[in-house]
Write a structure and sequence with these properties.
Organism: Aphanothece sacrum FPU1
Structural class: alpha+beta
Largest sheet: 3 strands, antiparallel
Helix content: 40-55%
Protein name: DUF2470 domain-containing protein
Number of domains: 1
CATH superfamily: PNP-oxidase-like
CATH topology: Split barrel-like
CATH class: Alpha Beta
InterPro entries: DUF2470, Haem_oxidase_HugZ-like_sf
Number of helices: 3
Length: about 90
């Protein structure tokens, strides 16, 4: 059984994503946040229903809420869902 998505788990996921997968966060903002002109983005938090991003679009910092297609059960579900979303986003760009 994986851990529930608590504020501490959200912080851990965001830190990992921001440090190691910044390109994925930009793509989440572009594709799922409907901001195709996103230049940079940061994951601020994640909860069972979605993620909160901050994106720089045309020299303006804007908040973006990306909803998931299902409520996340736990941290493992978050991991798989984020991977699935990036795969779909990349294939839609090709």
């Amino acid at each position: 059984m994986s851990e529930p998505i608590t504020p501490a788990i959200s912080e851990r996921i965001c830190k990992h994503m921001n440090q190691d997968h910044s390109d994925a966060i930009i793509l989440y903002a572009k594709v799922y946040g409907n901001t195709p002109d996103t230049e940079i983005a940061e994951m601020l938090s994640i909860d069972p229903d979605g993620m909160n991003l901050s994106a720089k679009v045309k020299d303006e910092i804007i908040p973006i809420r990306v909803s998931f297609d299902h409520p996340l059960k736990d941290a493992e579900d978050a991991h798989h869902t984020l991977i699935d979303m990036i795969k779909k986003a990349r294939s839609s760009k090709n």
